[in-house]
Amino acid sequence: MGPLAGVYLHIPFCASRCHYCNFATGGYEKSLAERYVTVLEADVSRSASDSSRDHMRRVDTIYFGGGTPTTLSIPELQRILRALKESFHIEPYSEITIEANPGSVTTDYLAQLREIGFNRLSFGVQSFDDAELAMIGRTHTAMEAKRSVDDARIAGFNNISIDLIAGLPEQRRATWEQNLDEAFAIAPEHFSVYLLELYKDAPLQHRIKRGELAAIDDDLTAEMYFSLDERACASGYEHYEISNWATPGMRSKHNLKYWTGEPYWAFGVSAAGYDGRSRWSNTRNINEYLDLIEAGKSAVSEIVELTDEDRMSEAIFLRLRLDEGVKLEEYKERFGVDIRSRYKDEIERLGAAGLIEMDTDNIRISRSGKILANEVFAAFI
Fold it and tell me: CA 284 to CA 286: how far, in whole Å?
C-alpha cells in the first residue's frame, strides 16, 4: 500500500487583493461563489471516475486555500466536505485545514467550522504592525489578528498556524522584533514565515519603482530570518522546513506531502496536483474553469509527465527543504543512484560555499544555505 494522498482545494475569493499577491484570486460575489461551489462539487465528484488515480483514493489531509476560503458560508463549505467524503476514503484522523483572514471570522463561525470537521486553522497575519498591514493592503489590524486567534481557541481549535512576511519595504529590525514578540505571545502551534517576493505587476513593486517606498536590503532580511529561527527554537519550536516552524507533533501534514513526494489531488481554479508520475494544474481563468466543468470537461490546462531524471532531481531539491535533508541510503534504494557520485561536482561546490552539509547518512542545506535556497536547488535541476 502506497502513501495516503492529500487534497487541495482553491477558493479564489477575497474581500480585497493584497498589494503583493500573485495568486488566482478576485473579489467576492455571492452569485459567483454559489456557482463556484456547485462546480467544485462536480469537479470533486468527477474525480471518482478517474481509475488511473485509484491509488490516491485514501486521503489523510485536506487543505482549503486561496484566496480566502472563509468568504464561503458554513453550508457551502459543508457541501464541499460532503462531496469529498462521497468521493474519497477520508481517514478519521485526517488533518483538515482552512485558511482564514484575521478579523473576518466570528467566534460563532469558527465554532461551526470546528463542528463540520475542520481541525486546523491557518491565519494570514503577515504582520502585527498596523502601518505595515495598511501598506500591503491587508484589511485587518494587529488587534484583530490577536483577537481572531483567541476566538479560535474559544471555538476549540488547538492546531493554529500563522503566516508572517519578512523583508517588507521599509521594515525595520525593531518592528520585526515586535512582530515576533506578539507572535510568540499568542503561542500558535505553527509558523510559516516568508521572505517577500514581488512579481513584476504587484502594486507594492510599482510603489518601490516610483520611489514611494524603499526596499530593504537582503542582509537585513537575512537578519530577520535568523532572529526568528533563534527565538523560535529557543521557545521549543522545531525548524522542520525552510519557511516553517512547529511545536513537536504539529508539523503541517499536508504541506509535508509536497516536500516528500506524496500524491495530492487538486480542485478549483489554478490548483495544482501530483499523482507520483505527473504534475498537473488547472486553468487560472475562473470563467474558463466554471464553463469547462459545467460542460463535463476537464479544467486541466497543463500536464507534465515526469521522467526518471525529473523524479530523481525533485527528490533531492524538495527534500533539501526539510531539516532532515536527503537520506543517502534511502535515495539509493529508491533510484539505484549514489548521490555522492552522481552529483560529486555540485556537492563539492556547494559544500565549499558553505551552503550544504553532508555526513555519512544525509545531505542537508546549511543555515546560511536556507537564505540562498534557490541557488542550492538549481544545482540539482
Answer: 6
| Average pLDDT, integer, range 332-355 | 92
Q: How many CA atoms lie within 13 A of 221 on its CB side?
A: 19
pLDDT at 82 (0 to 100): 97
Whole-structure pTM value: 0.93
Q: What is the mean pLDDT of residues 223-243?
A: 95
Residue 255 pLDDT exceeds 70: yes
* Tens-digit pLDDT profile for residues 273-289: 999 999 999 999 999 99
The C-alpha cell at 221 is: 532580511
Number of other CB atoms surrounding residue 256 within 10 Å: 17
Beta bridge partners of 362: 327
**CB contact set of 288 (below 8 Å; sequence gap of 6+):** 299
* Secondary structure of the chain as H, E, C letters: CCCCEEEEEEECEECCCCCCCCCCCEECCHHHHHHHHHHHHHHHHHHHHCHHHHHHCEEEEEEEEECCHHHCCHHHHHHHHHHHHHHCEEEEEEEEEEEECCCCCCHHHHHHHHHHCCCEEEEEEECCCHHHHHHCCCCCCHHHHHHHHHHHHHCCCCCEEEEEEECCCCCCHHHHHHHHHHHHHHCCCEEEEEECCCCCCCHHHHHHHCCCCCCCCHHHHHHHHHHHHHHHHHCCCEEEECCEEECCCCCCHHHHHHHHCCCEEEECCCCEEECCCEEEEECCCHHHHHHHHHCCCCCEEEEEECCHHHHHHHHHHHHCCECCCEEHHHHHHHHCCCHHHHCHHHHHHHHHCCCEEECCCEEEECCHHHCCHHHHHHCCC
- The answer to whether 87 touches 45, Cβ cutoff 8 Å, is yes
Over the stretch 178-217, which tens digit does the pLDDT of each residue have? Answer: 999 999 999 999 999 988 766 666 666 767 778 777 677 8
User: In percent, how much of the chain has pLDDT > 90?
Assistant: 71
Contact 62, 254 (CB under 8 A): yes
pLDDT band at 132 (very low <50, low <70, confident <90, very high): confident
Task: Provide the pLDDT for residue 131.
Answer: 87
Domains annotated for the chain, with CATH where assigned, are 5-259 (3.20.20.70), 308-378 (1.10.10.920)
